[in-house]
Amino acid sequence: MRHVFEFYNLILNGFKAVITIQDDWEFNVLGIYNFLKPGRFDALFKFIQDNHSKIPGDIVEAGVYRGSSLIALGMLLKQLGSDKKVYGFDSFAGFPPIYHPKDALSNFERMYEASLIDDHHIMAVRKNRQWWEALHMEHEVPLTEGISSSGAFSDTSIGLLKRKIELVGLDNIILVDGPFNETMTVAVEPTKIMAVVMDCDLYRSYLDAFEFTWPRLSTGGMIHLDEYYSLKFPGGRLATDEFIRDKRARLEMATLKPGDFQRWYAIKEG
Ligand SMILES: C[S@@+](CC[C@H](N)C(=O)[O-])C[C@H]1O[C@@H](n2cnc3c(N)ncnc32)[C@H](O)[C@@H]1O
Fold first, then answer.
1. Using a 6 Å cutoff on CB, does residue 205 contact ligand 1?
2. 69 in contact with ligand 1, CB cutoff 6 A
3. Which of 41, 150, 245, 268 has a CA that sits 20 to 30 A from residue 12's CA?
């Protein structure tokens, strides 16, 4: 699909100038995922490109952080001429204190013993942990405790997101500020969803996001599962398997080239 996105033109608010974002360094400086080159969201972006005029509903991102993928999604929709919106849910202050025992790294070993993950996955988890421990100083927080603690990803703010959105001139992004267990239990919009980006790492966050989005997701809609294959966050996969067990859903892995990290998504079948 890459040839479709040759460049991206934007009206820079205030200056009434046209700017072009096309080079990798420009995306990097702005902190935006470069959807013009291959990357971890390929399957999702291709799905949106192929289906935006066929499947009703907006796009939800559960886990925005500094807006890298959120803003890229807004840009893609503009590029496609779509009037769909992107709803970004986050505390904009890092993980809320919702750590669950299923987020502990040791769950990967249990998942392996129960054949829920394969040899390749557990080897990668172990190697990642060994290398992390070898490279970090003793006074730093050990991976096992630090990786999923509340406050991680707190180096962001809703102000930063608003400035970025204004800078690139997007009017199709809605920020929903707060912990999911508060915002997703009361949010009315969007009433219909075409695609979900699940990038919120933790067991409880995944379940909250599934409970909010699944009833609103159109048949044929996609959920990108950023942590279904993770080396750090077992809770995303555990929550996904629990949630979709009794749903009409199809789990799929994106096509891999040698050396690629596994990427997974679910399609709602009814
Ligand atoms: C990995 S980051 C998201 C990365 C982002 N999609 C990107 O492209 O850079 C995870 C985000 O999920 C948010 N998050 C996780 N659980 C949450 C919850 N229960 N409520 C609100 N925000 C949550 C964190 O605040 C963090 O910003």
1. yes
2. yes
3. 41
Cα of 35 vs centre of ligand 1, distance in Å, is 20
State the sign of the Cα–Cα–Cα–Cα dihedral 13, 170, 93, 177.
positive
Its pTM stands at: 0.93
Question: Token digits for 160?
Answer: 């930063």
Percentage above 70 pLDDT, the chain: 87
Burial class from Cβ neighbours inside 10 Å (0-12, 13-18, 19+) for residue 228 reads buried
Q: How far is the CA of 71 from the centre of ligand 1 (A)?
A: 14
Three-class DSSP category at 3? helix
Nearest ligand 1 atom to the CA of 205 is: 19
Per-residue pLDDT reduced to its tens digit, 170-198? 999 999 999 999 999 998 899 999 999 99
**pLDDT (0 to 100) of residue 134:** 84
Q: How many CA atoms lie within 13 A of 168 on its CB side?
A: 31
Question: How many angstroms is it from 92 CA to the middle of ligand 1?
Answer: 8
Q: How far apart are CA 238 and CA 108, in angstroms?
A: 10
Q: Which atom of ligand 1 is nearest to the CA of 154?
A: 25
Domains of the chain: 39-104+148-268 (3.40.50.150)
Tokens coding 169: 């001139």
